[in-house]
Amino acid sequence: MTIEEILKSDALAQFGAIMLEQSKQRTERKYQALNEITPKGRVVFAGDSIVEQFPLCEFFGDCIYNRGISGDTSGEMLRRLQNTVLPLKPEKVLIWIGTNDLQNEIKPTEIAENVRQSGERLQKECGSKICILSV
Question: pLDDT for 82-125, tens place per residue?
C-alpha cells in the first residue's frame, strides 16, 4: 500500500474519528475534575476548538473559565453541559459553537435549535445570562 492509499483509506479516517472522540472524553473528564475545585458563579466560555484554544487567561485573567472542547458540535456541547458547564452555576456564559456542525453538514436550523436549548437550559438551571458568539 502506498502512502497516498493509506492517507485516503477509510481505516485512517475511522482511526482519526476514534482518536478525536477519546480526546473529547479526556477533556470532558478534565473539566469535571476542575469543576469540583473551581469557585462557582463566574463567567464561562463554552464551545469548540475556537474556544478551547483561545488564550482567555492572557486576556481576562482567571475570571473566565474555558470549557471549550475541540471537535465538538452544538449537539455534543448541549449533551456535555451537564458535566462541563452546569456544575459551575455560571453567572454568564459565552457560547461559540457551530463550525464543526457546518463542516459535518448539519443544517443551520438544527445548530440554532441546539444553541437555543443550551441557552434555555443554562438560564433555567443556573439563571445564567447568555451571549451567543459567531464566526
Answer: 999 999 999 999 999 999 999 999 999 999 999 999 999 999 99
- String of b and e for 88-106 (b: at least 16 CB within 10 Å)? bbbebbbbbbbbbbeeeeb
Pairing of strands 64-68, 92-96: unpaired
Which of 1, 24, 22 has its CA nearest to residue 84?
24
Asked if 67 contacts 45 with a C-beta cutoff of 8 angstroms, the reply is: yes
Neighbours of 30 (CB within 10 A): 12
Residue whose cell numbers read 439563571: 127
Whole-number Cα distances in Å, 17 to 7, 82, 120: 14, 23, 30
Neighbour count for residue 72 (Cβ, 10 Å): 28
Does 3 or 38 have the greater pLDDT score?
A: 38
Instruction: Report the DSSP beta bridge partners of residue 65.
Output: 44
